[in-house]
Amino acid sequence: MVTVSDADTTLPDGVQRRTFEGKESLATRGEPVYGEPTDGSWRAWDPHRSKLAATIESGLDTGLAADDTVLYLGAANGTTVGHVADFAGRTYAVEFAPRPVRDLLDVCETRPRLFPLLKDAREPATYAHVVESNVDAVVQDVATRGQAAVAARNAQFLADDGRLVLAIKARSEDVAREPQAVFEDVRAELRETFEILAETRLEPFHDDHLALVARPR
């Protein structure tokens, strides 16, 4: 039997907590993508496979809302951005590697509001002619050195009251340094462009990751 909890006010409309096979999970409505448990039109959103799901599970209010226009950086094969497109509005999915984009295209087939872009998030000029300005949210999960710089370059797309939802992977910045030191450096760089509103570590779902919510200065 499926149960629904409405106690968590940080969930965007279109995201619920439901029970699948006796285990509670975040869930969105959409066609399954990666063999996740389903119940009718609902599919489980696994925080162990999604930094954004882990961010929400950790209690951070992302500010995401139903029908938001979203620019998603680091879409990979569509695991997380597919869930975003289940509840958001127009969603642009940027991924630079051709192999995962082939999987991403399959996710897009049943999501008419999801637009794949085979582009490098470090070079927003290459997709600025496609992505509309004043998007509601930039969601970033890019495993590369210079994650704050990627966010700053893509701030041009955000509305004045838009939000950056960023998952920082410490080991992508510097595998040898302590994660906390890496996070401090990334925060300092981000503050040149953004006001940081909230943050949380993503353990136990993802080691050495920090999630941040910020808005443009």
SSE blueprint and pairings:
Blueprint (H helix, E strand, L loop, with lengths): L3 E2 L9 E6 L2 E7 L8 E2 L2 E4 L5 H7 L12 E4 L5 H9 L3 E5 L2 H12 L4 E5 L16 E6 L6 H8 L3 E12 H4 L5 H12 L3 E8 L7 E8 L1
Parallel strand pairs: 6-7, 6-9, 7-8, 9-10
Antiparallel strand pairs: 1-2, 2-3, 3-5, 4-5, 10-12, 11-12
Mean pLDDT across all amino acids:
94
Task: Report the portion of residues in β strands.
Answer: 25-35%
| Radius of gyration based on Cα positions | 16 Å
The portion of residues assigned to helices is 10-25%
Tally of domains: 2
Give me the secondary-structure category: alpha/beta
How far the N terminus sits from the C terminus, by CA atoms, comes to 46 Å
The helix/strand order is: EEEEEHEHEHEEHEHHEE
Morphology: globular
The CATH architecture classification of the largest domain is: 3-Layer(aba) Sandwich
Unreliable stretches covering 5 or more consecutive residues: 1-7
- CATH topology value of the largest domain: Rossmann fold
CATH superfamily of the largest domain: Vaccinia Virus protein VP39
Structure at a glance:
The chain has 217 residues and is of the alpha/beta class.
Key features of this structure:
seven-stranded mixed sheet, alpha/beta, single chain, 217 residues, five-stranded antiparallel sheet, 2 domains, 6 helices, Rossmann fold
Task: Please explain how this structure is put together.
By secondary structure, this protein is of the alpha/beta class. It has two domains: 4-45; 70-216, Vaccinia Virus protein VP39 (Rossmann fold, 3-Layer(aba) Sandwich), CATH 3.40.50. The protein is 24% helix and 32% strand. The chain is built from six helices and twelve strands. The chain has helices at 51-57, 79-87, 98-109, 147-154, 170-173, 179-190, and strands spanning 4-5, 15-20, 23-29, 38-39, 42-45, 70-73, 91-95, 114-118, 135-140, 158-169, 194-201, 209-216. It has a seven-stranded mixed sheet, with helices on both faces. Helix 2 links the parallel strand 6 and strand 7. The chain is globular, with a radius of gyration of 16 Å. The termini are far apart. Mean pLDDT is 94; it is low at 1-7.
